[in-house]
Amino acid sequence: MAILSNVSFSRSNVYLKPSLSHLPSSPSSRHHCLIRCSLQEGKEVVSPLVWSLGEEVSKRSLLALVSASLFVVDPALAFKGGGPYGQGVTRGQDLSGKDFSGQTLIRQDFKTSILRQANFKGAKLLGASFFDADLTGADLSETDLRGADFSLANVTKVNLTNANLEGATATGNTSFKGSNITGADFTDVPLRDDQREYLCKIADGVNATTGNATRDTLLCN
């Protein structure tokens, strides 16, 4: 700590003022001085070790800043169509009867939207969010819904024929009442006991893509 007191700043350079009182007494020890001090009186020299430490700290600080920025992401940017403005906004909209058939809508944001009678037939909806959306009467047949979020969604009277819902989320008051689930794949979909019981009563068919029987994916008895 005593050595650091002899560091001065001039313009943008760092200089070390050698203090003989803090240097090792023997010549051999001086040769191995930790901060490579200069013993020339009246001269100020840049310590290579000070430069090295300064550069290392700068590099580490920059790396930490960049790394942190990678994890601080606006939640709205995690999905497409989240808005709040501009064309293509699908979150919180009335999209009743809209035709999305055959489209690639990976991680599309349909949170809280009204999607009654909307046509999604054959669409790729991996990771899409239908959180608290109204899908009453919508056509989701032959869709790829792996990892989609149906939490709190109204999925009544929906056509889910041959839809692949593997790993989708259906927590809360999600309801599939009156829906056609022939050939739908519900592998790893968490369902309330009452919903699973209801779906098992109407489950039938084998998914054309995965080859899994609907009843098996629902873990029906």
Structure in words:
- The chain has 221 residues and is mainly alpha-helical.
- It contains 4 helices and 2 strands, in the order ββαααα.
- Helix content is 19%, strand content 4%.
- Strands 1-2 form a two-stranded antiparallel sheet.
- Mean pLDDT is 77; it is low at 1-24, 27-46 and 65-77.
- A hairpin with a 2-residue loop joins strand 1 and strand 2 (13-16).
Largest sheet: 2 strands, antiparallel
End-to-end separation in angstroms reads 75 Å
Radius of gyration, rounded? 33 Å
Structural class based on helices, strands and sheet pairing = mainly alpha
Oligomeric state of this protein: single chain
Overall mean confidence score, pLDDT: 77
Strand content: under 5%
Judging from the principal axes of the Cα atoms, what is the shape?
globular
Helix proportion range: 10-25%
How are the strands of the largest sheet arranged?
A: 1-2
Q: What's the number of helices?
A: 4
- DSSP strand tally: 2
Point out poorly predicted stretches.
1-24, 27-46, 65-77
List the helices and strands in order: EEHHHH
Key features?
single chain; 221 residues; mainly alpha; two-stranded antiparallel sheet; 4 helices; 2 strands; 4% strand; globular
Concise summary:
With 221 residues, the protein is mainly alpha-helical. Helices cover 19% and strands 4% of the residues. A two-stranded antiparallel ribbon has the order 1-2.
